[in-house]
Prior knowledge:
This protein is α/β, with parallel strands linked by helices. It folds into two domains: 3-122 and 198-304, 3-Layer(aba) Sandwich (Malonyl-Coenzyme A Acyl Carrier Protein, domain 2), CATH 3.40.366.10; 128-188, Alpha-Beta Plaits. The chain has twelve helices and eight strands. Helix 12 links the parallel strand 7 and strand 8. Helix 2 runs antiparallel to helix 4 (58-79). It is globular and about 50 Å long.
Amino acid sequence: MGKIAFMFPGQGAQYVGMGKDFYDQIPVSKEMFELASKASGLDVPALCFEENEQINITEYTQIAMLAAEVAMLKAIEEKGLKPDVTAGLSLGEYGALAASGVMSAEDVFKIVRKRGIYMQEAVPNGGAMVAVLGLDTAVIEKICEETEGCVSIANYNCPGQIVITGEEGAAQAAVEKLTAAGAKRCVPLKVSGPFHSSLLVGAGEKLAKELENVEICDIQIPYIANVTADYVKDKSEVKFLLEKQVSSSVKWQQTIERMIADGVDTFVEIGPGKTLSGFMRKINKDMKVYNVEKVEDLDKLSELM
Protein backbone atom coordinates (compact mmCIF):
# COMPACT_ATOMS: atom_id res chain seq x y z
CA MET A 1 0.00 0.00 0.00
CA GLY A 2 1.13 3.55 -0.72
CA LYS A 3 1.01 6.42 1.73
CA ILE A 4 -2.09 7.88 3.38
CA ALA A 5 -2.84 11.61 3.65
CA PHE A 6 -5.39 13.32 5.89
CA MET A 7 -6.87 16.49 4.39
CA PHE A 8 -9.14 19.08 5.97
CA PRO A 9 -11.57 21.44 4.16
CA GLY A 10 -11.85 25.20 4.59
CA GLN A 11 -14.85 27.36 5.34
CA GLY A 12 -17.75 27.21 2.92
CA ALA A 13 -18.55 23.56 3.65
CA GLN A 14 -20.17 24.32 7.03
CA TYR A 15 -23.77 23.42 7.80
CA VAL A 16 -25.99 23.25 10.87
CA GLY A 17 -25.71 19.78 12.38
CA MET A 18 -22.12 19.07 11.31
CA GLY A 19 -20.45 16.69 13.73
CA LYS A 20 -23.50 16.15 15.93
CA ASP A 21 -23.43 12.36 15.66
CA PHE A 22 -19.77 12.39 16.74
CA TYR A 23 -20.70 14.61 19.70
CA ASP A 24 -23.56 12.31 20.67
CA GLN A 25 -21.82 8.96 20.19
CA ILE A 26 -18.05 9.34 20.67
CA PRO A 27 -16.72 10.66 24.01
CA VAL A 28 -13.39 11.94 22.67
CA SER A 29 -15.26 13.91 19.98
CA LYS A 30 -17.58 15.43 22.58
CA GLU A 31 -14.49 16.44 24.55
CA MET A 32 -13.16 18.33 21.53
CA PHE A 33 -16.39 20.32 21.08
CA GLU A 34 -16.32 21.18 24.77
CA LEU A 35 -12.63 22.13 24.58
CA ALA A 36 -13.43 24.40 21.62
CA SER A 37 -16.08 26.12 23.75
CA LYS A 38 -13.65 26.59 26.62
CA ALA A 39 -10.88 27.91 24.37
CA SER A 40 -13.11 30.28 22.39
CA GLY A 41 -15.59 31.46 25.01
CA LEU A 42 -18.44 30.42 22.72
CA ASP A 43 -21.08 27.72 22.95
CA VAL A 44 -19.61 25.75 20.06
CA PRO A 45 -22.10 22.82 20.16
CA ALA A 46 -24.97 25.31 19.90
CA LEU A 47 -23.18 27.09 17.05
CA CYS A 48 -22.72 23.81 15.17
CA PHE A 49 -25.98 22.02 15.95
CA GLU A 50 -28.74 24.61 16.42
CA GLU A 51 -30.26 26.75 13.66
CA ASN A 52 -28.46 30.12 13.65
CA GLU A 53 -27.15 32.77 11.27
CA GLN A 54 -23.74 33.08 12.92
CA ILE A 55 -22.49 29.82 11.45
CA ASN A 56 -21.98 31.57 8.09
CA ILE A 57 -20.18 34.60 9.55
CA THR A 58 -16.41 34.16 9.36
CA GLU A 59 -15.65 34.96 12.98
CA TYR A 60 -17.91 32.06 14.03
CA THR A 61 -17.61 29.79 10.98
CA GLN A 62 -13.93 29.14 11.54
CA ILE A 63 -14.14 27.86 15.12
CA ALA A 64 -17.27 25.84 14.30
CA MET A 65 -15.67 24.15 11.28
CA LEU A 66 -12.45 23.43 13.12
CA ALA A 67 -14.24 21.96 16.13
CA ALA A 68 -16.08 19.53 13.86
CA GLU A 69 -12.88 18.61 12.02
CA VAL A 70 -10.82 17.99 15.16
CA ALA A 71 -13.67 16.04 16.76
CA MET A 72 -13.72 13.75 13.70
CA LEU A 73 -9.91 13.55 13.63
CA LYS A 74 -9.74 12.37 17.24
CA ALA A 75 -12.34 9.68 16.55
CA ILE A 76 -10.23 8.42 13.65
CA GLU A 77 -7.03 8.49 15.73
CA GLU A 78 -8.80 6.54 18.45
CA LYS A 79 -9.44 3.83 15.86
CA GLY A 80 -5.68 3.60 15.35
CA LEU A 81 -5.30 5.23 11.91
CA LYS A 82 -2.45 7.72 11.46
CA PRO A 83 -1.55 9.48 8.21
CA ASP A 84 1.87 9.65 6.57
CA VAL A 85 1.28 13.31 5.69
CA THR A 86 -1.41 15.92 6.23
CA ALA A 87 -2.63 19.25 4.83
CA GLY A 88 -5.70 21.46 4.91
CA LEU A 89 -7.19 24.12 2.70
CA SER A 90 -7.03 27.59 4.30
CA LEU A 91 -8.80 27.19 7.66
CA GLY A 92 -8.32 23.44 7.21
CA GLU A 93 -4.57 23.90 7.68
CA TYR A 94 -5.32 24.18 11.39
CA GLY A 95 -6.89 20.73 11.29
CA ALA A 96 -3.63 19.55 9.74
CA LEU A 97 -1.68 21.26 12.54
CA ALA A 98 -3.69 19.28 15.08
CA ALA A 99 -3.08 16.06 13.14
CA SER A 100 0.65 16.76 12.85
CA GLY A 101 1.11 17.36 16.58
CA VAL A 102 2.53 20.83 15.99
CA MET A 103 -0.09 22.48 18.24
CA SER A 104 -2.32 21.20 20.99
CA ALA A 105 -6.03 21.08 20.20
CA GLU A 106 -6.67 23.81 22.78
CA ASP A 107 -4.13 26.17 21.19
CA VAL A 108 -5.47 25.45 17.70
CA PHE A 109 -8.96 26.43 18.89
CA LYS A 110 -7.70 29.60 20.61
CA ILE A 111 -5.78 30.76 17.57
CA VAL A 112 -8.58 30.03 15.10
CA ARG A 113 -11.06 31.98 17.22
CA LYS A 114 -8.73 34.99 16.95
CA ARG A 115 -8.07 34.33 13.27
CA GLY A 116 -11.78 34.44 12.49
CA ILE A 117 -12.22 37.71 14.38
CA TYR A 118 -9.22 39.39 12.76
CA MET A 119 -10.19 38.29 9.25
CA GLN A 120 -13.74 39.54 9.80
CA GLU A 121 -12.51 42.88 11.15
CA ALA A 122 -9.93 43.42 8.39
CA VAL A 123 -12.50 44.30 5.73
CA PRO A 124 -15.88 44.52 7.50
CA ASN A 125 -17.67 45.87 4.43
CA GLY A 126 -16.71 45.04 0.91
CA GLY A 127 -14.35 42.87 -1.00
CA ALA A 128 -15.18 39.89 -3.15
CA MET A 129 -14.12 36.37 -4.01
CA VAL A 130 -15.05 34.75 -7.32
CA ALA A 131 -14.53 31.19 -8.56
CA VAL A 132 -13.29 31.23 -12.15
CA LEU A 133 -14.13 28.04 -14.02
CA GLY A 134 -12.65 26.66 -17.22
CA LEU A 135 -9.83 29.08 -17.92
CA ASP A 136 -6.08 28.49 -18.04
CA THR A 137 -4.29 29.49 -14.83
CA ALA A 138 -1.67 31.57 -16.59
CA VAL A 139 -4.39 33.64 -18.30
CA ILE A 140 -6.07 34.32 -14.95
CA GLU A 141 -2.77 35.33 -13.34
CA LYS A 142 -2.00 37.72 -16.22
CA ILE A 143 -5.44 39.36 -16.10
CA CYS A 144 -5.21 39.86 -12.33
CA GLU A 145 -1.78 41.46 -12.73
CA GLU A 146 -3.06 43.80 -15.43
CA THR A 147 -6.27 44.84 -13.62
CA GLU A 148 -6.13 48.13 -11.73
CA GLY A 149 -6.73 47.86 -7.99
CA CYS A 150 -6.31 44.96 -5.59
CA VAL A 151 -7.21 41.62 -7.20
CA SER A 152 -5.19 38.41 -7.09
CA ILE A 153 -5.50 34.63 -6.89
CA ALA A 154 -6.82 33.35 -3.58
CA ASN A 155 -6.97 29.60 -4.29
CA TYR A 156 -5.42 27.26 -6.81
CA ASN A 157 -8.07 24.61 -6.17
CA CYS A 158 -7.77 22.20 -9.09
CA PRO A 159 -7.49 22.23 -12.89
CA GLY A 160 -10.25 24.46 -14.22
CA GLN A 161 -11.07 26.11 -10.89
CA ILE A 162 -9.24 29.15 -9.58
CA VAL A 163 -10.61 31.61 -7.02
CA ILE A 164 -9.77 35.31 -7.29
CA THR A 165 -10.00 37.78 -4.43
CA GLY A 166 -9.73 41.51 -3.76
CA GLU A 167 -11.54 44.83 -3.84
CA GLU A 168 -15.07 44.52 -5.21
CA GLY A 169 -14.55 46.92 -8.10
CA ALA A 170 -11.24 45.37 -9.12
CA ALA A 171 -12.66 41.85 -8.88
CA GLN A 172 -15.62 42.82 -11.07
CA ALA A 173 -13.30 44.43 -13.64
CA ALA A 174 -11.23 41.25 -13.68
CA VAL A 175 -14.37 39.12 -14.11
CA GLU A 176 -15.33 41.07 -17.23
CA LYS A 177 -11.87 40.45 -18.72
CA LEU A 178 -11.90 36.78 -17.66
CA THR A 179 -15.30 36.25 -19.27
CA ALA A 180 -14.08 37.88 -22.47
CA ALA A 181 -10.98 35.65 -22.36
CA GLY A 182 -13.16 32.54 -22.38
CA ALA A 183 -13.94 31.60 -18.79
CA LYS A 184 -16.87 29.16 -18.75
CA ARG A 185 -18.34 30.72 -15.59
CA CYS A 186 -17.39 33.22 -12.92
CA VAL A 187 -19.24 32.45 -9.69
CA PRO A 188 -19.27 34.98 -6.80
CA LEU A 189 -18.65 33.22 -3.49
CA LYS A 190 -20.81 33.83 -0.44
CA VAL A 191 -18.05 35.02 1.86
CA SER A 192 -17.76 38.01 4.14
CA GLY A 193 -14.41 39.32 2.94
CA PRO A 194 -11.64 39.21 0.30
CA PHE A 195 -9.69 36.45 2.02
CA HIS A 196 -6.17 35.48 0.96
CA SER A 197 -5.56 38.93 -0.52
CA SER A 198 -3.15 41.72 0.44
CA LEU A 199 -6.11 43.44 2.13
CA LEU A 200 -5.69 40.84 4.91
CA VAL A 201 -2.03 41.61 5.72
CA GLY A 202 -3.08 43.46 8.88
CA ALA A 203 -5.09 40.46 10.06
CA GLY A 204 -2.02 38.30 9.62
CA GLU A 205 0.07 40.71 11.66
CA LYS A 206 -2.44 40.59 14.51
CA LEU A 207 -2.47 36.81 14.31
CA ALA A 208 1.33 36.77 14.54
CA LYS A 209 1.11 38.57 17.90
CA GLU A 210 -1.30 35.92 19.20
CA LEU A 211 1.00 33.18 17.95
CA GLU A 212 3.83 34.55 20.08
CA ASN A 213 2.09 33.00 23.10
CA VAL A 214 1.59 29.57 21.52
CA GLU A 215 3.94 26.63 22.00
CA ILE A 216 4.96 25.01 18.73
CA CYS A 217 5.83 21.35 19.24
CA ASP A 218 8.01 19.07 17.15
CA ILE A 219 6.39 17.90 13.93
CA GLN A 220 5.21 14.33 14.55
CA ILE A 221 3.51 13.84 11.16
CA PRO A 222 4.77 15.77 8.12
CA TYR A 223 2.48 18.51 6.88
CA ILE A 224 2.43 20.75 3.84
CA ALA A 225 1.78 24.49 4.13
CA ASN A 226 -0.69 26.38 1.92
CA VAL A 227 1.75 29.21 1.26
CA THR A 228 4.59 27.10 -0.14
CA ALA A 229 2.92 23.81 -1.21
CA ASP A 230 5.95 22.25 0.45
CA TYR A 231 6.69 20.37 3.65
CA VAL A 232 7.30 22.44 6.75
CA LYS A 233 10.80 21.28 7.57
CA ASP A 234 11.28 22.91 10.95
CA LYS A 235 8.86 24.01 13.64
CA SER A 236 10.51 27.45 13.64
CA GLU A 237 8.78 28.12 10.28
CA VAL A 238 5.25 27.47 11.51
CA LYS A 239 4.30 30.86 12.95
CA PHE A 240 5.65 32.83 9.98
CA LEU A 241 3.77 30.61 7.51
CA LEU A 242 0.50 30.94 9.45
CA GLU A 243 0.84 34.73 9.48
CA LYS A 244 1.43 34.83 5.72
CA GLN A 245 -1.30 32.28 4.95
CA VAL A 246 -4.05 34.80 5.77
CA SER A 247 -3.05 37.09 2.88
CA SER A 248 -1.33 34.64 0.49
CA SER A 249 -2.63 32.32 -2.23
CA VAL A 250 -3.65 28.82 -1.14
CA LYS A 251 -1.71 26.41 -3.35
CA TRP A 252 -4.02 23.44 -2.94
CA GLN A 253 -3.58 21.77 -6.33
CA GLN A 254 0.20 22.04 -5.95
CA THR A 255 -0.05 20.57 -2.43
CA ILE A 256 -1.92 17.50 -3.65
CA GLU A 257 0.46 17.07 -6.58
CA ARG A 258 3.40 17.18 -4.17
CA MET A 259 1.84 14.45 -2.02
CA ILE A 260 1.17 12.23 -5.04
CA ALA A 261 4.75 12.71 -6.24
CA ASP A 262 5.90 11.49 -2.82
CA GLY A 263 3.90 8.27 -3.04
CA VAL A 264 0.56 9.18 -1.46
CA ASP A 265 -2.24 7.23 -3.14
CA THR A 266 -4.96 7.34 -0.46
CA PHE A 267 -6.60 10.53 0.78
CA VAL A 268 -9.00 10.86 3.71
CA GLU A 269 -11.07 14.06 3.75
CA ILE A 270 -12.03 14.85 7.35
CA GLY A 271 -14.82 17.35 7.93
CA PRO A 272 -18.09 18.63 6.50
CA GLY A 273 -18.82 18.13 2.82
CA LYS A 274 -16.85 16.59 -0.02
CA THR A 275 -15.25 19.70 -1.52
CA LEU A 276 -11.67 18.41 -1.45
CA SER A 277 -12.72 15.04 -2.84
CA GLY A 278 -14.27 16.87 -5.77
CA PHE A 279 -11.02 18.74 -6.37
CA MET A 280 -9.13 15.45 -6.16
CA ARG A 281 -11.13 13.94 -9.03
CA LYS A 282 -9.95 16.81 -11.24
CA ILE A 283 -6.34 16.74 -10.01
CA ASN A 284 -5.89 12.96 -10.27
CA LYS A 285 -8.91 10.67 -10.55
CA ASP A 286 -6.80 7.54 -9.94
CA MET A 287 -6.32 8.27 -6.24
CA LYS A 288 -8.35 6.49 -3.56
CA VAL A 289 -10.45 9.00 -1.62
CA TYR A 290 -12.43 8.49 1.59
CA ASN A 291 -14.70 11.00 3.34
CA VAL A 292 -15.36 11.15 7.06
CA GLU A 293 -18.20 13.45 8.08
CA LYS A 294 -20.56 10.94 9.74
CA VAL A 295 -19.89 8.31 12.39
CA GLU A 296 -20.78 5.51 9.98
CA ASP A 297 -17.99 6.72 7.68
CA LEU A 298 -15.47 5.42 10.21
CA ASP A 299 -16.32 1.86 9.18
CA LYS A 300 -15.12 2.56 5.64
CA LEU A 301 -11.63 3.21 7.00
CA SER A 302 -11.29 -0.28 8.47
CA GLU A 303 -9.42 -1.53 5.40
CA LEU A 304 -6.78 1.17 5.97
CA MET A 305 -6.19 0.22 9.60
